[in-house]
What does this fold into?
Amino acid sequence: MKRHDARELVLQALFAIDLGKNDHRMILDSLCREKDVDENSWEFCRYIVEGVIERQAVIDRLIQKYAVQWELTRMAGVDRNILRLALFEILFSYDVPEAVATNEAIELSKSFGSQESFRFINGILGNILKDLPAIKRAVEHSCNE
It folds into this structure.
């Protein structure tokens, strides 16, 4: 399974978790079995889903700060979870370049979001990337406390 396909699966899991507040392991396992995902892809998906959940408070604060005039809870669920996925990869997954995570988020938004989702997501991620060095320092500092 290609990483893009794995990210689609991660997005589906994050959306289901967000929507129903269900157990993330159960949802991810069900999706991976349904898609007959190989072990490496399953591990990649698990890493991202668990990472997003573990760091969701930090990620959500960042989204809220940069989503000017948008409440996180009023944002489309697909958009919110695409942003969570992208920001986890940008901030905490050191083997994924920021440009790749951003491009993947935009592609996911074109496939799963509304007609305006890709502009919305690109705008937020673009503004975050402008401030990325300071954001990474702040995140590292808050994680070390």
Observations:
- Residues 3-20 form the longest helix (18 residues).
- The mean pLDDT is 90.
